[in-house]
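We treat protein structure as text, and this decision shapes the records that our systems exchange. Because each token names a local backbone shape, the row as a whole describes the fold. An entry from our holdings is shown next, in its original layout:
>
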Amino acid sequence: MIAAYLLRRAVGVSLVSFALISAAGAQDAAHTPTVLTMDQAVTLAHRNNPDFLATRNNRRNASAELRTAYGGLLPQLSASLSGQYQQGGQQFFNGVSLSSSSDVMQSQYQIGLNYSINAATFINPKVQRANSAAVNADIAGASESLTAVVKQDYLTALQSLAQAELQDSLVANAKTQLELAQARSQVGTGTLLDVRRAEVALSQQQVALLQARNQNEIDKLRLFQQMGVAQPSNVQLVSNLKVGDSIPALDTIISLAHRQNPGIIALRAREHVADLTFDREKTEYTPTLTLSTGIGGYTYQYRDPNFLVNQALSNTASARSSCIATQEVRQAVGLPNTLAQCSTIQFTDAQAAQLRAQNAQFPFSFTPAPRSVFAQLSLPIFDGFAREQRLQESQVARENARYKVRSSELALNADITAAYLSLQTAQQTVDLQEKNAAKARQELDFVQSEYAVGLSTFIDLSTSRTAYAQAETDHINAIYNYHKAFAVLESAVGRPLR
């Protein structure tokens, strides 16, 4: 009868648990969670992670530098427009006194064409193209690094979620064991000590559940921090990953990584930049050709529009007086003269109007300046060994770039080999832990059934539950350690392997 009672009580507890789970499911249906897959998390991170976006902005600078390098193959064009106002008065120029009783306004324009070229001009576009490729490789490397971090954080969040769900089941099991202990105590086959032990075990399991849920929330916060977006209030992480995916042989993976690893590709691109930079520095021993020409014009206007007219009137009057004086002298000594023609020296209104029109130049009635063409061929001979220093530094940079590539290739070989071995070990561990968890589950079911009929003690039951909890925890950790090891290997290769 005791066994039948305890079994009925256990069945009743199971039905209550099922009812609570169904009610919780109905409540969740009213608040449909936001489903986020690992691929979606990676995509969102590439769109919003600020560190990655800052790295990607370097592409704009590289494009501008490449455009500038090509612009060096073209002549430079400049234009200027200036104006000046000068008050009338006495001025000295090269020791000569110049004076004007009228204020002066001046303007000037200049359009210049300059072209300077040497051997480095033709190498610069190659250097900047290589630099642009290196920047793109750096961006690809940052993208792969971000993908690896997001995948690891996503798997960590899934792992802590699985641990929390395990704690949920352990809490339910602890409640069942408490019910069994209470039932046995009521019928006289158990002790109050078993009931108290079951209550303590349930409380401890509830604390473990709270800690597991809290850890899962923290892991999700870290994930969304890497994604660069705010965490939704009701987000659900899902994954269709499975254990046991086939992978290529180690030699094949290493060969693939040497061709596709973003870090190696970026270092090789930097090595190419260093090679071209060294070639560019050697061109400092070559001559430079400079050509320049341009067009221009100027205006010069007296602010007083009658200044030139008054000067012309004064000059005309002076010329007429001089003519009369000269011709009168010739007449007095009996020489032929043209005294009658002196009266024809006059300054007319038409001439005054013409002078006023000629004076009205400011600001845009430009008088063209004489054309000129300038050519120069220069060859640096000695600059205090600065040129030799730059050449030596570029040569050292080129050698160091090669050393970095070789060092990274060796490190990549070691990292991939270690990740490959870790992956194989993780897969074997999953198989073993799965068997251990199954055995622990069978043991717990067996001991729980025996405890229900009084064939085992509560200590045996508690020991079996602890062993089962540890086995399931190890099984979950083994599964996600496998997936993390797979992600590390994919990151080292630079492409997915499944």
